[in-house]
TrEMBL record:
EC category: hydrolase
Keywords: Glycoprotein, Glycosidase, Hydrolase, Signal
Protein name in the entry: Beta-galactosidase
Ranges for domain Beta-galactosidase: 333-513
Pfam family membership, one: BetaGal_dom3
The keyword Signal is annotated on this UniProt entry: yes
Length: 949
């Protein structure tokens, strides 16, 4: 089984932290990671695949996934990826290509060729056949709807062909957006393994509800119809959601798609014998540097099991660990066959309120229990009759009944192997089990207060060695020791005379248990394999355990701790004499059951960092364009009288679509010159996507703004211009565009939807009376900053000058004590910058974010962008929100030296604007074994930019 989490390396541009993420995924019991690559970031200029970025990717993919973490990879390079990135991963220059996107039109396929062959050969070098971690490749993405000739096998074959030509030899997998069955009948080896998405409760965070029919109970049947000969593959199983501008924030998302969702919805998928299962997202990320799509803001936390801050504190991380570890511990699951589950309500229980679906193996059977009304909040009692190696057995045997409490779903198993001991059945869910040389250990869990029963074949004598005796009943039936107990917050440990230890936990205590594969055979490195698994220790710890190894008679563990934590090594090699945690020798004691006990002490780090109202700021006017005498000689003249853009017919004498001139990212500026007739009103139509905005000046006079609205992708506005007849004027328009649109339907070209000024009129004039110039980022597609890539900087004066880059000579700028907290008294754009040192203690993971929170004024129209050491790490649209706190990873921050923080502030209203509070805030602090300092991301420095205007 390939059990993986989706992670977008390009959303964490600090490769020094990728291994951290891989280890946290591996620690959940997963063995895989699925990742997209983003064409728009790799080929910002047509024909110019970025070598800088690619060498990075190449090195990082191979080393970090494979070497230490032992994670297999599914590569999803697109070229279409969706992924809530600008233009679905399509570079802006594609907007000038008239070919229909995602079709076999040569214009489109040729445009993709350079990217696909370049990324394809990077992937090829990192394939498992070449000793790398990549075992699967998904070409395209959700080729699931479109204009005729959709579904076009010729096109799909062409995309595959491109990857094969680049040397990709591992199997392909597809990703239908639902089980539509496209191309299922072709199948491997030439066609991909058929895979699909599952997003059962959608993306609308306004409601915390599970609609009545949202549990996809027919996926198993569809798989049988569609692709029975291929492994059942859910390439994206919803594990969170994007959140739109003005949304409710990711903590709500995480709650809505929380541990109860994982229990009910994921177990439903496992009941179909999933072989390839990828949760989307496994890890949150950041839409830094304008890489996001228009509907989304900077954070792409997604409410994922691992947060954008890389913490594992969400309960859904722990819950998912229980599930993944169970499957990891259950090789019998791999060959179990889903039964005819059409009539699940009442089956096995006779209780119509309970639905049971089954998977039968050679010996071991698996049963998934849920409420018939899957979203029921009530408690349903049941008794159940299950097929075991001793025939049908009615459970519980020792009286009473079982219960399903609220939104829950459970696995019951029968005839389950615990290292040579047959467990006849268990209604408690299995976390893991191991056979060590001196004992067998089974760790099970249940909901608080529930009654569970399990039966171990043979007549072994049970003894409660820890916990409340009164909660346990023993019996001897069916030639087995039957144990019934009530789940308590205090664990119960039962020892059987056959050497089996049962750890009976409640779900929440189970979250503290870990079992990490030992490194094994050097050929597979740390990849999961039977040998490493069967001997890997079971450890009770706390926040996170990362790695385990055994050297001679010592056990070496690494992990992260957020409190002083008791450690118990419950099972491991028999002859252990010493324990090391995070390389430190620990106090060592072993009880009569062979359990090693110790304690790791948490020491609060001393934290201090600068108060941003005291670092001393400098300020630059970032709108010199409205000053008299401003020279726009070096700007691009808007001179194209036609456009290849297929999404909108030109209604102006010359195109003003930004991408027609190679400006594909960030802020856009226009200057229109005209001679006045003394009585003008200007009508303007701009387009920038959800939450975009614009401001307009006549010479240095502000004439108005559009502050943005969630549903306003386009805006029409009329301005009375205070003109005098016969004078020459310049109209300056600043447009915040939010990225290119999506392109979900093949053969359409929505991605090309233009950005910037669409149309205008000036009363009493021909349109041609205005002559326009345009700029975006300096150089457009010949972008200057090869390190941070083509999207990071937009068209603000300060950005064109590179003033966001460290080393920028700010000493010549004006001083501003409070910087952005001083702000502007009228509309305009200011650019603030400050240098300060950080000295953060090593040995800890201390995520630092920039906070704009705690403002009293919720409505003022102000847009800020923040840049840390040159990387744009936040786009704050105060009047729309919801994001006020912007995480910046270590590695972008320099935790042990100088940092350069810059903030652009665009005040859109007459009264000006300021940031009330700007501070550095720490996320959850953990004492961490992850090697620090973190390797710095490439931080190229400011130098005077030739040709900057
Ligand atoms: C699925 C996309 O494949 C993925 O890239 C991402 O956009 C995700 O949606 C939503 O976050 S498409 C699925 C909604 C059918």
């Amino acid at each position: 089984m390939f059990f993986s989490g989706e992670f977008h390396p390009f959303r964490l541009p600090a490769p020094g932290l990728w291994l951290d993420v891989f280890q946290k995924i591996k620690a959940m019991g997963f063995n895989g990671v699925s990742f997209y690559t983003n064409w728009a970031l790799l080929e910002g200029k047509e024909g110019d695949f970025s070598a800088e970025v690619s060498s990075h990717l190449n090195r990082s993919l191979k080393l970090r996934a494979q070497q230490i973490s032992g994670i297999y990879l599914l590569a999803r390079p697109g070229p279409y990826i969706n992924a809530e990135v600008s233009g679905v991963g399509f570079p802006g220059w594609l907007a000038r290509n008239p070919a229909a996107l995602r079709t076999a039109e040569p214009g489109y396929l040729n445009a993709t060729e350079n990217y696909v062959s370049s990324i394809g050969s990077i992937i090829a070098k990192a394939q498992i056949t070449k000793g790398g971690p990549i075992i699967l490749v998904q070409p395209e993405n959700e080729y699931s709807s479109g204009n005729p000739p959709f579904p076009d096998p010729v096109y799909f074959r062409d995309v595959e062909e491109q990857y094969r030509n680049a040397g990709v030899e591992v199997p392909f997998i597809s990703n239908d957006n639902a089980p539509n069955g496209y191309f299922y009948d072709q199948g491997p080896p030439e066609w991909p393994i058929y895979g699909h998405d599952s997003y059962p409760i959608g993306f609308d965070d306004k409601i915390y509800q599970w609609p009545a029919d949202a549990l996809p109970i027919n996926y198993g049947d569809l798989h049988e119809e569609q692709a029975p000969d291929t492994p059942y593959s859910v390439v994206e199983c919803q594990a969170g959601s994007w959140d739109p501008w003005g949304g409710y924030g990711y903590n709500k998302t995480a709650a809505r798609l929380g541990p109860d969702y994982e229990r009910v919805f994921f177990k439903n998928i496992y009941s179909f014998a999933a072989s390839i299962f990828n949760v989307y997202m496994g890890v949150g990320g950041t839409n830094w540097g304008n890489l996001g799509y228009p509907e989304g803001y900077t954070s792409y936390d997604y409410g994922a099991p691992i947060t954008e801050l890389r913490t594992v504190e969400r309960e859904k991380y722990s819950q998912l660990k229980l599930q993944a570890m169970f499957l990891h511990s259950s090789p019998a699951y791999l060959s179990a066959i889903p039964q005819n589950n059409t009539y699940a309500n009442g089956s096995y229980t006779g209780n119509p309120k309970i639905a049971t679906t089954a998977l039968f193996g050679n010996k071991t059977n698996f049963f998934v229990i849920r409420h018939a009304a899957y979203n029921s909040l009530s408690t349903n009692e049941y008794n159940i009759t299950l097929l075991t190696s001793k025939g049908n057995v009615s459970i519980p045997q020792l009286g009473g009944s079982l219960s399903l409490v609220g939104r829950d779903s459970k696995f019951h198993v029968t005839s389950y192997d615990i290292g040579g001991i047959n467990m006849l059945y268990s209604t408690a869910e299995i976390f893991t089990c191991r056979k060590f040389s001196n004992k067998n250990v089974l760790v099970v869990y249940g909901g608080p207060g529930e009654t569970h029963e399990l039966a171990i074949e043979g007549g072994a004598q049970p003894t409660v060695v820890e916990g409340n005796n009164d909660l346990v009943k023993f019996g001897n039936k069916l030639g087995s020791t039957v144990i019934q107990y009530t789940v308590d917050a205090e664990r119960i440990i039962v020892k059987l005379s056959n050497g089996l230890y049962l750890y009976l936990l409640d779900r929440y205590s189970a979250y503290n248990y870990w079992s990490i594969d030992l490194p094994s055979d050097p050929v597979s490195g740390n990849y999961t394999n039977a040998e490493s698994f069967s001997s890997s220790p079971i450890v009770k710890a706390g926040y996170l355990l990362r790695t385990a190894k055994v050297i001679k008679d010592g056990i070496y563990l690494t992990g992260d701790f957020n409190a002083t934590t008791d450690i118990e090594v419950i099972g491991g090699p028999e002859q252990t004499k010493s324990l090391f945690v995070n390389s430190k020798p620990m106090e060592f004691s072993q009880d009569s059951h062979g359990v090693i006990k110790s304690v790791i002490r948490f020491a609060e780090p001393k934290l201090s960092w600068p108060d941003l109202s005291k670092t001393g700021w400098k300020v630059l006017d970032s709108l010199p364009e409205i000053q008299p005498g401003y020279n726009d000689e070096l700007w691009t003249s808007a001179s194209l009288t036609s456009s290849n853009n297929t999404e909108r017919n030109l209604t102006t004498p010359v195109s003003l679509y930004a991408s027609d001139y190679g400006y594909n990212t960030g802020y856009l500026l226009y200057r229109g010159q005209f001679r006045s007739n003394g009585n003008e009103t200007l009508h303007l139509e701009t387009q920038g996507g959800s939450a975009f905005g614009h401001s307009v000046w006549l010479n240095e006079t502000f004439v108005g703004s559009f502050s943005g609205a969630i549903t306003a992708y386009t805006w029409n506005q009329t301005f009375a211009l205070p003109t005098q007849k016969g004078q020459n004027y310049v109209i300056t328009v600043l447009v915040d565009q939010m990225g290119f649109e999506e392109n979900g339907s093949a053969g359409t070209s929505e991605m090309k939807t233009p950005r910037g000024v669409l149309d205008y009129s000036l009363s009493g004039h021909e349109k041609s009376d205005i002559s326009w110039k345009i700029t975006g980022n300096l150089g457009g597609e010949d972008y200057r900053d090869r390190t941070r890539g083509p999207l990071n900087e937009g068209g603000l004066f300060a950005e064109r000058q590179g003033s966001h880059l460290p080393g920028s000579p700010i000493s010549s700028w004006k001083s501003s004590d409070l910087g952005p907290m001083e702000g502007l008294e009228g509309p305009g754009v200011a650019f603030y910058a400050t240098y300060f040192d950080l000295d953060i203690p090593t040995g800890y993971d201390i995520p630092i974010s920039i906070s704009f929170a705690n403002t009293t004024d919720e409505t003022s129209s102000v847009r800020c962008q923040i840049y840390v050491n040159g990387y744009q790490f936040g786009k704050w649209v105060h009047n729309i929100g919801p994001q006020d706190i912007f995480p910046v990873p270590e590695g972008i921050w320099n935790y042990h030296g100088s940092n350069y923080l810059a903030v652009s502030l665009w005040a859109l209203e007459e009264g000006g604007a300021k940031v009330e509070n700007l501070e550095l805030v720490a996320g959850p602090v953990v004492q961490s074994s992850y090697p620090r300092p973190i390797e710095m991301s490439p931080i190229s420095k400011w130098h005077k930019r030739p040709g900057a205007y």
